[in-house]
Amino acid sequence: MTLQAYDALFSLFGQSSFTAAEQQVVYLAINVFNACEYCTAGHSVLARNAGLPADAIEALRESQPLADPRHEALRRFAETVVRERGRVGEEDLAAFFETGFSRAQVLEVVLAVATKTISNYTNHITHTPNDTFMAATAWTAPHRRAAGA
């Protein structure tokens, strides 16, 4: 049942108004914030396939600012939604809207958060091993790097 819910939400977010690259910006920002090693590795491949440049993918993987102002606003907003558990302030919304995003896209980010919450938490609980296609994009969460894991 959980897999069905994830598949349905993933499919719906794929139909959002965000471009394929923007969808991956949102997903990677959430995955990294939630320290999901499996999803960060997998979405790094999907981001490359969606046309995100390597430097943008690396910046997302390290929670660093993106050179593209629109992508950076999207990254910051997605992280804020997760960090603040949806309690974003008017300044956060204004910064999001200033780069051309809409009110409907606010809710599309919420949809992505719901999608990734299911997968990130599931992968944390089950310790999902990386698939072979993710070998080159393996990622270690910062808290595990600091612990020498």
Automatic annotation (TrEMBL):
Organism: Methylobacterium isbiliense
Domain Carboxymuconolactone decarboxylase-like: 10-78
Gene3D superfamilies in UniProt: AhpD-like (1.20.1290.10)
Any coiled-coil regions, as ranges: none
The name this protein goes by in its record: Carboxymuconolactone decarboxylase-like domain-containing protein
Superkingdom per UniProt: Bacteria
